[in-house]
User: Fold this.
Amino acid sequence: MAGTLTKASEKTKTKSRKMKKSRRESSLWWMYLPSVLIVVLFIIYPFLDGIRISFTNWNGFSQTYDYIGLDQYKRMFADPDTWLVVKNTLLYGIGSTILQNIAGLGYALLLNHNLKVRSFTRTIIYLPVIISPLIMGYIWYFFFAFQGGALNDIFLLFGKDPINALGNPAVNPYIIVFVNTFQFVGIAMIIYLAGLQSISKDYYEAANIDGATGWQKFKNITIPLLMPSITINMVLNIIGGLKLFDVIVALTNGGPGNASQSMSTFMYNLYFARQDAGYAATQGVLMAIIILIISMAALLYFKRKEVEA
Amino acid sequence: MDQLSSRTKWLLTGLALMITAFHLIPFYILITTSLKKAGDFTSKWAFPSNFDTENFALAWEQANLGNAFINTAIITVFAAVLLIFFGSMAAYALARRTTKLNKYVYMLFVGVMVIPPLTALVPLYRLVVDFGMMNTHLVAILNNVAAFMPLTIFLYAGFIRSTIPKELEEAAKIDGASTLGVFFKIVFPLLKPITATVLIISSVYIWNDYQFAIFFLQDSSVQTLTVALAGFFGQNSSQLNLVAAAALMASLPMVIVFLFLQRYFIEGLAAGSVKG
Assistant:
């Protein structure tokens, strides 16, 4: 094995030497060939083929299908479910991002003090990050469930009627945002803690000499110098929130009806439950465009802020 | 660190403990639920007076968790090893040789990171069926490797550029070592810190994966923990104590690994975010 690999590398060396005598550097393309192949086969090719399928009426299993032009796109824009699902997806993305950053920054500011309970608190807050989002969804299901849920046990204790929070479309999207935030706030916290610890204490000492208040120091020193951490968190959280899938499956399964469906779960149902593969692919294209635009916009916006700061 | 008055310190400690208690609530409920007998309708907040570990044995058997553990472990280990092997090698070539081709290839990998993997679902499913790879460990391994390859290459390439001195490799080259020899004998051992980060991030994610496992691993013989659990929940949604016991057992291995190797989990993330 080692022998053949060495020979192969010598071959490429002599080959590239022959090809470009003036340049000593070869690309060493054989070192990344396996990685390129696997990414092309499992991501790039299916992604591009998905765009092609979005112009068909394929049902997902038959051998034949027709190209029907833009019909699936017309259908998508006329479908009220599309807008419901896009609205939910944006709520999951933007809502989780706001909550995770506020809570994450708050926790980081608290734990940046030298408290005895610091590492214990940090461990507990971070713990859900390593648990499967599906399982985290089930764990919160035990809390919110209509029958036998821990929340309703409190209601019963005070003689109130139990509530069906997960079955109520006015409430359950917010529960999903909450659970997603609860699960990943630990990542935001750690990134902010690392950011806070990289800020030199000299700034605060200088500000103290000038008699700055706590809020002034936070606004004029902490936040500007924390901008790189804010960028990372915003972009990570928004991409994670827009792609949300597991937590929804565990908590509401998209219901009642399509009330809490995200684009991911909606696509999954179109393909597997309704055998509507062409339309599922069309929804996939819309999802890719939305995620691309929002994550690029977030990245550019916060990067610009970083430069200003 | 900072100078706080002891009163402020006590207040902040109290606040931290309250936050900790809040974050422990769902786990507490999980534990009390998993210990209660089938007909026990007492409050979830009350600890069961007579413990019942029966749930765990029942759930283990009915959800086929033993089998699911083995499947999950096989997929995670092979995917992580392939990611580290091929990812580090690819990143080395891309970071060290800045030819035009390599710049394009690197851009390709970075660009792929913004494609939401689920949008490729419909054709990918067809591809997997056509290749006869449905319900195999192989498809889950390769799919996870593909999903994580761009990030792996990005992390390794950044690390190689910023911390590995070129002189070391050049000295070895003069001694007549091959490119691969130089990479594996000299460079790879120096990549240990970033290898640990890649290993942790990718293993946690692959171990917990549900989105893809549910598509490609529907047969009970190849089910991973998440798929087995979702199926089990579907059949037992009225018996939450069994589901809770299964959920607890399924999360325990990662929790234990995390508690022992916490430092690496948190430091890797912190270091990556400050640099990135």
